[in-house]
Design goal:
This protein is α/β, with parallel strands linked by helices and 434 residues long. The chain contains 14 helices and 15 strands.
C-alpha cells in the first residue's frame, strides 16, 4: 500500500500551528486521537471530499452532521446565494426565521415555539438557563459521555468515587471551568437506572433538580442507544422530580426521523435543543418547547437570550432548503443507506472483536469484544486499533470520524458504489491490523 501524499496538508498544518492553537478551530479536527495530522480540505461535492493535495475520499464526517444531503447540494447553494444577494444580516426579523420556526414546530411534536441561535452550544446554554428559571432550582443531571456543547456548566465530569454508581458532586472537565460552575451538574452513567435514581435523590436533597439533559441517541461517545425503557425512565424521573427533560437533538433532530429521536423512540421533551441539520452547513442552532416555557424568554419574559447573528438569513435559507428535501422518502433512503453500510462494515469485520452499532443516519464501529452500553464501555475500546484502522481507511480513500468517540454520518448523497468502496477499504484495513 502506498500512502497518498500529504505534502500540502503538512505544510498548511505547520503554518497554522503557529497561528491557531493546534492548527485547528475545533479539537477533533486535529486527528490526534488517531495519531496523525489533519488533512486540509480543498472542496467537497456530494459524498466526497478532496484534500489540498488532490486526494479524494468518501466522507463519513460530513461536517459532523449538518450535511445530510452531502456537500454543496445545488439547492442549498442556490438558496444561500440568493439570500446573500439580498443582504447578509440585518439585526431585524426576516420572513425566513418565521418559516424555519414553522417548519421545526411542524416536525417536532413537543415544540410549539422556537428561538434560533448560532450554535448548538448556545441553544444548550439557553435551555439550561430557561430550565433553572422555570423551576427556581439549580441542579442539572447530565449523562457521562454525552456532549451538549462547550458551556462551562456542562464541562463537568463525575468526581472520583462517584464514577460507578452513587451520584455526587462533579468536578470541572476542563481547566478554566470553576468548581462552582461544575458542582451544580451531576454526571450519571448512561443506561444505568439505579444511578439515575440516586442522582435524582441527591439533587432533591440539595435544593432540587432543575433538569435532566440527555442526547436521546447519544452519539458523542460513539453511538450508544438507550437500552429498552431507559429513556422512558429518564422521562419519568424528570416528571416525578418536577424537573424539565431537555433532549439534545442537535445530532438526532431531523436526521434519524422527520420528528427526530423523540418521534423514533416515542418520548417527549420539555425543551429540545437543535442544531447541525437545521443550518444546512451554516452556523445555526435552536431551542424549542411549549409556549408556556418559551414565553419566558426575553423580550416576552425575563430570561435573557440574544445573538447578533441568531436567525441569520443565510443560515436560515440553508436550513430551510435542507429541510425542504427531507420528506418521508428521504428518511427511508437514509435509513436504508445506513443499514447497508452497517451490514457491509460488519461483514468486513468478520469475526474480529468489533461491534457495529447503527440507527437511521448514524453508525459507530466500536473496537470492543463486548456490546457498548456506556461511556465506560466506550473508553474500554481498543483505541489504538481504531486509530490504526482509521489511518488505513484514509490511505484508501475513505474519511472516517477520526475518533472512536464520534459517530459516522452517512448522507443522502452516499451511493451504493461508494459504500462498496468503503467496505473494501474497511476489510483491507482490518487485515492490515493483524
Ligand atoms: C455538536 C453538538 C452540540 C454543540 O453544537 P455546536 O453547534 O457545535 O455548538 C451540542 N449537542 C450535541 C449532541 C452535539 O452533537
Amino acid at each position: 500500500m502506498s500512502s497518498p501524499t500529504d505534502t500540502r496538508s503538512r505544510d498548511l498544518q505547520g503554518r497554522a500551528a503557529q497561528l491557531i492553537p493546534g492548527g485547528v478551530n475545533s479539537p477533533v479536527r486535529a486527528m490526534r486521537a488517531i495519531g496523525r495530522d489533519p488533512l486540509w480540505i480543498r472542496a467537497g461535492d456530494g459524498a466526497e471530499l478532496v484534500d489540498v493535495d488532490g486526494n479524494r475520499y468518501v466522507d463519513y464526517v460530513c461536517s459532523w452532521g449538518p450535511l445530510i444531503h452531502g456537500h454543496a447540494h445545488p439547492r442549498i447553494v442556490d438558496a444561500v446565494c440568493e439570500a446573500a444577494r439580498s443582504g447578509m444580516s440585518f439585526g431585524a426579523p426576516t420572513e425566513g426565521e418565521l418559516l424555519l420556526a414553522q417548519e421545526i414546530a411542524a416536525r417536532m411534536q413537543s415544540v410549539e415555539m422556537v428561538r434560533s441561535t448560532s450554535s448548538g452550544t448556545e441553544a444548550s446554554m439557553t435551555a439550561i438557563r430557561l430550565a433553572r428559571a422555570a423551576t427556581g432550582r439549580r441542579a442539572i443531571i447530565k449523562f457521562a459521555g454525552a456532549y451538549h456543547g462547550h458551556l462551562d456548566s456542562l464541562l463537568a465530569e463525575a468526581g472520583s468515587g462517584v464514577a460507578t454508581a452513587a451520584a455526587g458532586r462533579s468536578v470541572p472537565a476542563s481547566p478554566g471551568v470553576t468548581e462552582g460552575a461544575a458542582e451544580d451538574t451531576i454526571v450519571s452513567p448512561w443506561n444505568d437506572s439505579r444511578a439515575l435514581e440516586e442522582a435524582a435523590e441527591w439533587a432533591a436533597e440539595r435544593g432540587g433538580l432543575a433538569a435532566i439533559i440527555a442526547e436521546p441517541l447519544p452519539a458523542n461517545m460513539g453511538l450508544v442507544p438507550p437500552q429498552d425503557g431507559f429513556l422512558q425512565e429518564v422521562r419519568e424521573v424528570a416528571a416525578r422530580c418536577g424537573a424539565l427533560l431537555i433532549l439534545d437533538e442537535v445530532i438526532s433532530g431531523f436526521r434519524v426521523a422527520r420528528g427526530g429521536a423523540q418521534q423514533l423512540l416515542g418520548v417527549s421533551a420539555d425543551l429540545t435543543i437543535m442544531g447541525k441539520v437545521i443550518g444546512g452547513g451554516l452556523p445555526a442552532g435552536a431551542v424549542g418547547g411549549p409556549a408556556e416555557l418559551m414565553g419566558m424568554l426575553a423580550p416576552e419574559g425575563e430570561v435573557y437570550h440574544a445573538g447578533t447573528l441568531s436567525g441569520n438569513p443565510l443560515a436560515v435559507a440553508a436550513g430551510l432548503a435542507s429541510l425542504s428535501m427531507l420528506d418521508e422518502d428521504a428518511y427511508m433512503r437514509l435509513a436504508a443507506t445506513t443499514e447497508k453500510l452497517a451490514n457491509l462494515l460488519a461483514a468486513a469485520a468478520g469475526d474480529r472483536p468489533v461491534q457495529v452499532v447503527s440507527c437511521p443516519g448514524l453508525l459507530t464501529v466500536f473496537f470492543s469484544e463486548r456490546p457498548v452500553r456506556s461511556f465506560a464501555d466506550a473508553k474500554a475500546c481498543d483505541l489504538d486499533a481504531y486509530g490504526r484502522w482509521c489511518r488505513g481507511l484514509l490511505s484508501r480513500g475513505v474519511y472516517p470520524p477520526p475518533s472512536q468517540f464520534e459517530a459516522w454520518f452517512p448522507s443522502l448523497a452516499h451511493q451504493q458504489e461508494q459504500l462498496e468502496r468503503t467496505a473494501s477499504a474497511a476489510e483491507e484495513s482490518f487485515r492490515e491490523l493483524e
